[in-house]
Amino acid sequence: MSQSDYDITNYAWLDHESVGFPDSHLQSLELFREKVVRPSLQALDAEITRLHASDEPAEIFITDDYAELFQTTVEGYLIAVQSMWERGLRAMLIQRERKLTDTPNAHALERASWEGKPQSLQDHFVRLMGVPLHAFDIFPDLDILQNLANAIRHGDGASARKVHELCPKLWFHWIEPREVLVAGPYRIVGPHDGPKHPPFEAITLPERLLEQMIQSAMWFWEDIEHMRCNSFKRKSPIVVAKISTWQACRVRRCSARVWHRADGAFP
After folding, report:
1. 5 burial type by CB count under 10 A (0-12 exposed, 13-18 middle, 19+ buried)
2. Is the dihedral of CA 254, 259, 263, 266 positive or negative?
3. CB 244 within 8 A of CB 235
4. How far apart are CA 119 and CA 121, in angstroms?
5. Backbone phi, psi, residue 77, to 5°
6. Assessment of whether the complete model's pTM goes beyond 0.85
7. With the CA atoms of 126, 128, 130 and 135 taken in that order, what torsion angle do they form, in degrees rounded to the nearest 10?
8. Which of 33, 186, 231, 258 has the smallest C-beta neighbourhood within 10 Å, fewest atoms?
C-alpha cells in the first residue's frame, strides 16, 4: 500500500497513553538545532568567509582545513539527529510493546534493523502503531537519514549505494559509466567499465540537507503528537484548534522545505 492509502490525520489509537510524550522529542531536536547546530555552523562559515577575504598569504592554506571541518561537522550532526530520532522511535515502540502485548519482547525491538530483514523496525512500527511508516509524508527523508548516517559511520556499502540511488546529485562531479556531458566545445564520456556508484567519501553534504533532516524528524514527532491528541475521546476547544492547525500546516510542508531529493550539493 502507498502513502495515499492512509490518512494519519484521521487516525486514532485506543491506547494513546502508551505513545508517551512526543513533544519532548520535538523540543530536544529544536533545541539542538537552535543552540548547537546553527550557531556552530554559522561560526565556521564566518571564519571561512574571513579567510577567503584575507590578504594574508598563509591563511589561504587554512581555508581548505576549515571547509573540511565544516563538512565533517555537518556529517557529525547528521549522525546525531539520526540517533536522537531512532532512540525516540525505539523507546516509543518498546513502550507500546510492553503495554499492548501479553508477552513483550523488547530485545527484538532493540535488535531490529531499519529495513530488509524480517521483523525490521518498519515491520514493528506497523504492528504496534497500526499504520506503516511510509504513511507519513516525511518517510522518504527518514529513509535517507537512516542510510546516510549509516554510510557516514561505515563508508562504502549498501547504505552508501542506496544514498547514491536516492540522491545522485550529492556527488556533483561524478560521471556515470557511458554518461555524456557536453560543455561548449567539450564532450566528456564516462568510462564504459567504470563503477556504478561513486565512493562515499566523494559526497558533498550541504547545510540545507542537514536542516531538512532535522525539520523532517521534528515533523515526524509533530505528527505523532497530533495523532495522540486526535485519539482523545473528549477534546477541548484548544485541542480541536491545535489539530486543525496541524492539518493545515501539513498541506504546506512541501513549500516549507529547504532541500529536496532532486537537489544537488550546491544551490
Report:
1. exposed
2. positive
3. no
4. 7
5. -70, -35
6. yes
7. -40
8. 186
CB 21 within 8 A of CB 95: no
Q: How many CB atoms lie within 10 A of CB 116?
A: 8
> One-letter amino acid identity for 134?
H
Number of CB atoms found within 10 A of residue 216's CB = 24
Neighbours of 14 (CB within 10 A): 9
Between CA 207 and CA 201 the distance in angstroms is 17
- Using the structure block, give the residue that is written with the C-alpha cell 508517551: 20
Cα 16 versus chain centre, distance? 25
Report how far Cα 26 is from the mean position of its chain's Cα atoms. Answer: 14
Q: Which three cell numbers stand for residue 139?
A: 518517510
Helix intervals (H) in 112-236 = 121-129, 139-154, 158-166, 207-230
Residue 187, phi then psi, degrees to nearest 5:
-135, 120
* 3 state SS of 136: coil
- Residue-wise pLDDT for 63-96, tens only, equals 889 999 999 999 999 999 999 999 999 999 999 9
Q: pLDDT band for position 55 (50/70/90)?
A: confident
Q: Which three cell numbers stand for residue 135?
A: 504513511
